[in-house]
Amino acid sequence: MSTAMQRAMRLAAVITGVAIMLTLADPSALYAGKKKKAEAAPKQPNILDVLDYSKIVWPNPPAVTRIKYLNYFCCDKFTPTAEKKKNSWMDRMAGGETQQQQMADKPLFALWTPYGLAEDSKGNLYVADGKVGAIFVFNTETKELQMIKHGLQARFGDIIGLAIDDSDRLFVSDTKMHRILVFDKNHKVEGTIAQGLVDPGGMAVDNENRFLYVADAALDLVLVYDADKLTLLRKIGTPGKNHTLVDPGQFAVPTNVAVDGDGNLYVSDTYNNRIEIFDADGNFIRQFGKAGDRPGTFMRPKGIAVDVDGHVWVADAVQDRVQCFTPEGDLLIWMGGHGTLPGQFRTLAGLYIDKNNRIFTSEQFPGRVQMFRYFTDDEARAELARRKQAEKGNSDGAKPTSNAAATNSAAR
Question: Is the pTM for the entire model greater than 0.70?
Answer without folding.
Answer: yes
